[in-house]
Amino acid sequence: MPTPIGPRIMRRVLLQLADQGRTREFPLEGVSVCRIGRSEQSNVVLGGDGRVSRNHALVQRMDTGGYYLSDLGSRNGTVLNGRLVANPTVLKSGDLIRLGGYELVFVQEEDPVQLPPEADTQEANTTALLDVRLISVLVLDIRDYTALSRELGESTTSQIMGSVFRAAGQVLADSGSYAQKYIGDAVMSIWVHQGTRPGAADLRSVFGALCDLAQIVDGIHREFSLAAPVRFGAGVNCGVAALGNMGSSNLADHTAMGECVNKTFRLESASKLVGCPVLIGQDAYAFLDAVPQLRSAFRPTLTELRGYPQPELVYAGHVDKIRAVLVSP
After folding, report:
1. Of 105, 107, 108, 109, nearest in space to 17 by CA
2. pTM of the model
3. Residue 203: what pLDDT?
């Protein structure tokens, strides 16, 4: 007589959040991508802390049954066991994840097991990691958005941002951008380069798109009859990053993750401190030897970058000088 088979014991996988004296649990079983951030569309919503970005980080399931953590270009970074996450990082049970003032503990009661080749992995309709490539990143943020929203009201402000994002989408698509994201009042765009350095045409596309986006922002006050021009800040950086589709087969969400992306957001934010609308990183400046005339549009300066222990050498510039170089014969 065959031995009866008892019910299969399910081993839990979850995130634990200590919140106001109680522990909340977010199960990860059956979830291929768990998004974490202030956005109400997140799987783990962390509201009430301005240090947490709307789309801050994600935990994604791999075919092995393991999970990894990625920062989504958040402004203040994601910290894993006391170290800033620069690239997608495999999680171990007991790992401590910190986002702003929140702390999450990753719990996996059973070690991941390598799936056999014939295993059905249809449930995970996401591409964890496509490639590691050299990219350029552009982040442009509209200044004083909160004050603008208070002055004009949510309806008019939403109309303005819709107009800006539609025009920006066309500009970036025409420039050969690999992916675009619209995060609140900011635009992020990514260009993927062949080989180990961008060519002159690649760099002209990136900085040309920056100039075109600046022109769109500059036209807001005329189009909507505002009392004063709308200001912006921008960061540009180059580096190696992990490219992937963080969405599903039905809803693609192509993005890039890594130190290069995170630093670009910090460059944009630091442009306020420097008092110059455009900051580019050292790697981006180094690659400008392919278009040496563009170097004349930037000046070196030391500034604090959020999350970095020492002041960083960056390069500050103005759009009118960049544009003058690009249109010159």
Report:
1. 105
2. 0.64
3. 97
